[in-house]
Amino acid sequence: MRILLVNPNSTASMTEQAHRSAERVAAPTTLVEAVNPTTSPTSIEGHADEAMAVPAMLAEIRAGEARGIDAYVIACFDDPGLGAAREIASGPVIGICQAAIQVAMNIATRFSIITTLPRSVPIIEDLVDAYGAGHRCRKVRSVDMPVLALEEDLAHTEEMLVREILRAKQDDGAEAIILGCAGMSELCDRLKLRTGMPVIDGVTAAIKLAEALVGAGYSTSKVGAYDYPRVKSAAVARPVDAVA
Q1: Is 194 in the same domain as 211?
Q2: C-alpha angle with apex 173: 167 to 176, nearest 5 degrees?
Q3: Residue 5: beta bridge partners?
Q4: What per-residue confidence (pLDDT) applies to 154?
Q5: Beta-bridge partners for 32
Q6: Residues 49, 116 contacting (CB under 8 angstroms)
Q7: What pLDDT sits at residue 149?
Q8: pLDDT at position 239
Q9: 27: CATH
Q10: Checking CA distances to 141, which of 17, 129, 177, 241 falls within 20 to 30 Å?
Q11: What pLDDT score was predicted for residue 191?
Q12: How far is CA 134 from CA 138, 139, 167, 201, in A?
């Protein structure tokens, strides 16, 4: 089985970190490949970054289709372009936010999410509602750190996350925690040990879900909304004076 992990931003170190997390949990028969575009924003922190990142991400998935990839993981917690990616892929496409929420709903009655910047909070709240988990998510919290700052000082990042996890346990009544950024994935096990809380990383959750779907023989439905995009001819521009 071949899974392509696509980091929609252009920061290679973040791609490598997510790749290490994915390989740690992948089955021995699973080959996880990891790529990132070189023309996307260096981090995805808002709607504009998402929009700019999607075309290059879709190009990576189209290339994966040509190579016979079985499933895809979009390694950004905003799940950018998820519907579009499912339209162009024959195999399953898993967003790490949706995967993490599905895991949380199976192991806890209520959970909180910890993300990076405050501006990401409403985006994630809307995703939670869209995935039908609004009644189970107690709060989306922020450590108020830019995405790229996460890997600059991992010790500091860990301390910030530990503090916020303990607050979520006490103040939110959370029974599990979701890490709201792919850049946090390598800290998952340490955070579990230090807080005594189930801590869910979307990258590893998405890899295991992708393996399960492919292993069971499920593919993306091409009946209706996720059908392949219709082929359209490019519009031909005409000189202004030729327009009647």
Answers
A1: no
A2: 85
A3: 34, 73
A4: 85
A5: 3
A6: no
A7: 86
A8: 55
A9: 3.40.50.12500
A10: 17
A11: 97
A12: 8, 9, 20, 19
pLDDT at 174: 98
- And the tokens for 95? 């967003």
Torsion, Cα of 190, 194, 196, 200 (10° steps): -30
CB-count exposure of residue 190 (10 Å: 0-12, 13-18, 19+) = middle
- Beta-strand ranges (E) seen in the chain are 2-6, 31-35, 71-74, 93-95, 111-115, 137-142, 176-179, 199-201
Residue with tokens 């189209």: 62
What the block records as the tokens of 215 is 């292993």
220 in a structural domain: no
Give the pLDDT means over successive 10-residue stretches in the chain (244 positions).
97 95 97 97 95 97 98 97 98 98 98 96 97 97 90 89 97 97 92 97 98 98 96 68 48
Q: Are 19 and 75 a contacting pair, CB within 8 Å?
A: no
Domain span at 139: 97-202
Q: Note whether 93 and 71 are within 8 A (CB).
A: yes
Whether 175 is in a domain gets the answer yes
